[in-house]
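Appendix C: a fully annotated inverse folding record. The material below is reproduced so that readers can follow the format used throughout the book. The structure is listed first as tokens, followed by the designed sequence.
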């Protein structure tokens, strides 16, 4: 484990402690609403991908939300909320390591925040989206014009909070209890073979995996093998000569041994 990987992991653990301590406080309320927005936006994206028509995207003050749509494939649209928000958390964690990648992730978030305002948003969502779009754009400006690195830390926190909150949200709404109007119950109505709580357990495990996968990819990006390789080259496991940067099994064992010795 090199210094960059150690710094990343330490910062993530610090973020994790902060999120666990203050998750339910007023301080984290804007972040919880942001995660709700990404939950609803994921429903909308799944609807568009499956040729549906999104009529409205709304986020409420009580941290709930609704995406109204017509058509599309419900089997994919329904789980896209909880799993989709976890995917966004994974993406932000993965892309937090570099200046260009963190800028790209932040730019996509700003675009989603603004595009969604075209779909009958309520007042809460208008204020939420404009506020987060302005704040994130300011950090992008600061990163490129004033001080760097700063956006890396912001995007990493976005990813950590969104991913962890997606796990908590899935547990609270689909595993701990069964809500008749929840996504898990809607999925059960479409596929009666799987009870709502079983659906929630599957989503929860998937969300945990996505957050861990994001951390793993980010750690690989900071490894010595990827030091002189582009982001895409590193993800494809190839160096400039076409050879593999690491073997999956061997690398995993080496990382485990290094962690135990460290």
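Designed amino acids, in order:
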């Amino acid at each position: 484990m090199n210094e960059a990987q150690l710094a990343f992991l330490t910062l993530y653990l610090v973020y994790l402690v902060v999120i666990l301590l203050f998750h339910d406080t007023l301080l984290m309320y804007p972040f919880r609403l942001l995660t709700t927005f990404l939950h609803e936006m994921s429903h909308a994206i799944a609807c568009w991908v499956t040729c549906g028509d999104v009529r409205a995207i709304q986020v409420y003050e009580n941290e709930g939300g609704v995406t109204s749509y017509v058509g599309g494939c419900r089997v994919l649209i329904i789980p896209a909320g909880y799993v989709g928000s976890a995917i966004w958390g994974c993406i932000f964690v993965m892309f937090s390591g570099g200046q260009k990648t963190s800028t790209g992730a932040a730019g996509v978030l700003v675009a989603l925040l603004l595009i969604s305002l075209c779909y009958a948003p309520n007042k809460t969502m208008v204020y939420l989206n404009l506020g987060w779009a302005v704040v994130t754009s300011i950090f992008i400006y600061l990163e490129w014009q004033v001080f760097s690195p700063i956006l890396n830390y912001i995007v990493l926190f976005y990813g950590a909070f969104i991913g962890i909150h997606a796990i908590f949200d899935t547990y609270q709404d689909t595993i701990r209890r069964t809500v008749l109007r929840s996504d898990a119950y809607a999925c059960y109505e479409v596929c009666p073979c799987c009870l709502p709580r079983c659906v929630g357990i599957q989503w929860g495990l998937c969300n945990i995996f996505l957050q861990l996968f994001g951390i793993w990819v980010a750690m690989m990006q900071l490894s010595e093998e990827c030091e002189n390789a582009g982001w895409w080259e590193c993800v494809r496991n190839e160096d400039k000569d076409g050879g593999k940067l690491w073997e999956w099994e061997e690398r995993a064992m080496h990382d485990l041994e290094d962690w135990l010795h460290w």
